[in-house]
């Protein structure tokens, strides 16, 4: 607004010139024509006056010389005709124009006044700027006062400092325990990862044992006879290992789940459940320190002086605290709005600003605070009363008009008898041609005696000199004729041109008197509208920044939801997905252990306690090669590494001995309690 107002004067001046452009152009052009008429008439009249003097002087000289020459030639008694040695035109009859020249002595003044009028009209922007600048400076002072008042009154806007301090304290507390929470989270994930790995190993061992044992029981024909008991033993050993690991680490699982349920459950019950049920909002509503900065403030505080231009005592604040459009007077008992935290959260979730959810509008009227008309009341009155004084320019136009009228009525160009000038100037100055007469004298001198010859030659030279004067006189005559013709042309139109000039200047004068106030009003109104638009845009930005940005709480619900999810569900929630999966693992492993114990007892191979005699045939011969592999004599005879016979005991073979590798030596087993008989 300051930038726009600074150029108001020049803008008004240019608008005046622009609106009067056609009239001014016509006026300037007609003024130039009148000045040309006046200067041309003065110049030609001065030239006619000068030529008249020169021509009359030359005329007298020629007339005298011609009379003397005629007398001298007549005394010589020559045969030449000297009767034509005389002037034909009488230049002494040329009218005098001294009065007309003196009557145009004001022409330089006319030129100066016309130039001053042009300059003054072209300087209208500077004149307007010079007149407007002091007013603009005074307005800018008031505007700055309004700005200061606006800033001061903005301090009445209820502050959220108490809520901000509470949030800052909470954030400080969170930052204080941030390292502990991170360490707890790190330990939890580390321990959980280890336990999960153990559970995975136990599960894999149990699954492997169950799969191997079940496959042998369900489909025994898939495996060789001698591998079935080995697979059963492998399955049994795997199940033993998994059961043993479960017994070894089960107390750790129990302690971990117990601690998590105890600590996390209590924290979840105290904090998270109060958030989900809304009890925490009731708790926050009871904390007075959260919204203490929203209390209504005293409007008469010096720091919150209203932006009125008047500073006299008793001046009421331009922006009193307003409730529902009515003036609100603050008493000793400060009013505090009844704020509901739950409604604030609901409003934030739907995009409503804190300005309304916290009921700040009840103690601070934003519409009145951001009302542009209040700030522009005095300013608009000053702008609408703006005027421009162009009396000096009008006075110069009037003086120019008077000079033009003087030229019109005092020049008397139309009263000059131009035909008399033409008649006089049309007649030759001398009746005879002096150059031709001089030639005749020279011819006559050739036939004359010496004395007459010298005189005739002298007279011929004198005639030639007079012919030069005649030619000079003819040039004067031509120049005067040209000036007389120019003056006659000027005299035909100079009054009409002067009337046109006076008419145009009158129109310009009337336009300056009548149209300039309207132009000033239009420009000032446009400036006022532009200033109001600028201020309205600024106040709209202020409203947007305060209500829709600074007091926007769209971020609050998702932020609290994220905090609730990260803390209550993922960190301290006892029944979140991670701990629930760990519990399900434990729950599924318990029946797995029971089933494993049952399976190990069912699938364990029975040990031989009563060995039945196994009688081998005398010989075992490979019929294709006829080789003896094993004979009874050998089994009852020599043994590998021994040379003695042991006939005092019987050798029996069990199924286990038979299943051994045939490449190994068989060792007989003595059956206890069997005698030689």
From TrEMBL:
UniProt GO cellular component terms: apical plasma membrane; cell surface; cilium; microvillus membrane; prominosome
Main location: membrane
Transmembrane segments: 191-218, 238-263, 577-599
Gene Ontology MF terms in the entry: cholesterol binding
Topological relation to the membrane, as annotated: Multi-pass membrane protein
Cellular compartments annotated: Cell projection, Microvillus membrane
Sections of the chain in a coiled coil: 52-86
Keyword set, alphabetical order: Coiled coil, Glycoprotein, Membrane, Transmembrane, Transmembrane helix
InterPro entries reported for this sequence: Prominin (IPR008795)
Family: Belongs to the prominin family.
Record protein name field: Prominin 1 b
Protein source organism: Astyanax mexicanus
């Amino acid at each position: 607004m300051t930038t726009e107002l600074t150029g108001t004067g020049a803008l008004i001046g240019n608008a005046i010139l622009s609106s009067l452009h056609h009239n001014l152009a016509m006026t300037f052009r007609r003024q130039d024509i009148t000045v040309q008429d006046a200067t041309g008439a003065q110049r030609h009249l001065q030239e006619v006056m000068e030529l008249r003097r020169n021509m009359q002087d030359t005329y007298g000289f020629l007339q005298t010389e011609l009379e003397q020459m005629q007398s001298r030639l007549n005394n010589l008694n020559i045969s030449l005709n000297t009767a034509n040695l005389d002037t034909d035109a009488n230049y002494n009859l040329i009218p005098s124009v001294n009065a007309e020249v003196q009557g145009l002595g004001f022409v330089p003044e006319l030129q100066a006044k016309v130039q001053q009028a042009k300059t003054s009209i072209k300087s209208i922007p500077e004149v307007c700027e010079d007149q407007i600048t002091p007013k603009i400076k005074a307005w800018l002072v008031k505007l700055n006062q309004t700005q200061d008042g606006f800033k001061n009154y903005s301090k009445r806007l209820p502050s959220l400092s108490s809520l901000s301090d509470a949030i800052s304290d909470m954030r400080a507390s969170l930052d204080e325990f941030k390292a502990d929470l991170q360490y707890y989270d790190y330990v939890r994930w580390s321990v959980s990862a280890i336990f999960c790995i153990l559970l995975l190993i136990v599960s894999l061992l149990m699954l492997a044992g169950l799969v191997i044992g079940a496959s042998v029981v369900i489909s025994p024909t898939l495996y060789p006879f001698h591998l079935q008991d080995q697979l059963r033993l492998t399955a049994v050993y795997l199940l033993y290992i998994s059961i043993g690991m479960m017994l070894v680490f089960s107390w750790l699982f129990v302690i971990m789940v117990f601690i998590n349920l105890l600590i996390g459950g209590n924290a979840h019950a105290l904090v998270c459940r109060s958030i989900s049920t809304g009890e925490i909002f009731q708790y926050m509503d009871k904390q007075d320190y959260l919204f203490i900065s929203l209390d209504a403030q005293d409007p008469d505080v010096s720091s919150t002086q209203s932006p009125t231009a008047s500073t006299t005592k008793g001046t009421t604040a331009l922006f009193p605290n307003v409730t529902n459009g009515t003036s609100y007077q603050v008493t000793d008992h400060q009013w505090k709005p009844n704020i509901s935290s739950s409604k604030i959260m609901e409003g934030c979730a739907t995009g409503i600003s804190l300005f309304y959810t916290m009921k700040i509008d009840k103690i601070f009227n934003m519409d009145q605070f951001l009302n542009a008309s209040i700030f522009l009341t005095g300013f608009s009155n000053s702008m609408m009363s703006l005027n421009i004084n162009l009396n000096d320019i009008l006075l110069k136009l009037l003086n120019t008009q008077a000079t033009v009228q003087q030229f019109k009525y005092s020049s008397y160009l139309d009263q000059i008898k131009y035909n008399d000038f033409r008649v006089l100037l049309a007649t030759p100055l001398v009746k005879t041609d002096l150059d031709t007469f001089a030639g005749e004298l020279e011819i006559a001198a050739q036939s004359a005696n010496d004395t007459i010859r010298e005189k005739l030659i002298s007279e011929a030279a004198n005639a030639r000199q007079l012919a030069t004067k005649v030619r000079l006189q003819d040039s004067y005559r031509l120049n005067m004729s040209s000036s007389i013709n120019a003056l006659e042309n000027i005299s035909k139109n100079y009054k009409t041109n002067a009337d046109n000039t006076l008419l145009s200047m009158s129109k310009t004068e009337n336009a300056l008197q009548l149209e300039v106030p309207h132009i000033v009003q239009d420009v000032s109104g446009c400036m006022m509208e532009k200033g109001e638009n600028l201020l309205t845009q600024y106040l709209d930005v202020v409203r947007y920044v305060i209500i829709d940005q600074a007091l926007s709480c769209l971020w609050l619900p998702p932020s609290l939801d994220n905090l609730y999810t990260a803390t209550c569900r993922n960190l301290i929630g006892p029944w979140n997905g991670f701990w629930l999966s760990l519990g399900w693992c434990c729950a599924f492993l318990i029946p797995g252990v029971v089933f494993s114990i049952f399976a190990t007892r069912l699938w364990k191979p029975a040990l031989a306690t009563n060995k039945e005699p196994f009688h081998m045939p005398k010989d075992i011969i490979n019929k294709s090669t006829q080789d003896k592999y094993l004979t009874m004599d050998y089994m009852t005879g020599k043994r590998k590494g021994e040379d003695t016979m042991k006939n005092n005991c019987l050798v029996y073979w069990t199924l286990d001995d038979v299943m051994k590798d045939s490449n190994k030596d068989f060792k007989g087993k003595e059956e206890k309690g069997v005698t030689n008989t």
